[in-house]
Predict the 3D structure of the following.
Amino acid sequence: MTALEAVAVHLPPRLESIEDVGARIGLTPRQLRLFRRFHGLDQVRLDPDGTLLDLLDAAVRALPELRGNEHRVRYLLHARSMPVAVPYPLNPLHELAGRFGLGHANAFTVSQQACATSLLAVDLAGRLLADDGDPEALALVLAGEKTFTRDAQIVPDTSVFAEASAACLVSADGERDRVLSYAVRQRPEFDGRLAEDPDLLNRYLREYQPTMIEAVQAALDQAGLNLSEISLLLPHNVNQASWRMICRELDYPVEQVVLDNVPAVGHSFAADAFVNLRTATTGGTLRPGDHYLIAAAGVGATFSAMVIRH
């Protein structure tokens, strides 16, 4: 059974208000009021002087569990939201592998599910390790991206992107943080440029909540659990308003949703799942044996949920 062996997070030290981001990319006062007053956004973590390699490097260096286990890593995956991250022929993932003694690992990027790709990468890593035949084998999943274009800085009427990064060691079996289920609901009719198609954006926003709930319920059904048995819900950090509405529909206590990183860190692409898991574990809100659910959505559109036993 796929297990998360260890998780590390890097938060760039620079905090930038959504007003500063808005001034840079041309957001209107109405859009900024929507983000702050309704969505609960405040500031985002950014590293304007750092590269993608710097961002991922910092997350790996924050993972002491990797030290001495580099030889066990068979797969190195970058869970990426954007299809393109650096100009050809640069390849920061392979450079990172060489830097940390992982040149022997199969290194590749997963990007087909936008900001829900981190859950896909964990599931894929577990299946690869299960077929590997070596019970000691590990996979290293990385997440985190640069806000290098306007599309990489904002989701229209929804969120502002940040540059936090994360590293997660995955095993085919383990005693803690065992993956019990993984459910995906894909809505390809919403593929397109939301910023340039108001009708598409409005239809996507209308279907967002019910489809996310459908994915959550599917993951619970696969795990054989009820929502009342979920101690904590780890959302992606797009905004607070959408999760409050989902909680009302699910009749789930919003106090059991990790929303602290929405105003304090921002929406960090596919890294949100690991950022919130790190917050939950270091804050002591998860106890051994607790069940928690990670949920994420990616434009395009993919809605995913994963149930894990801590």
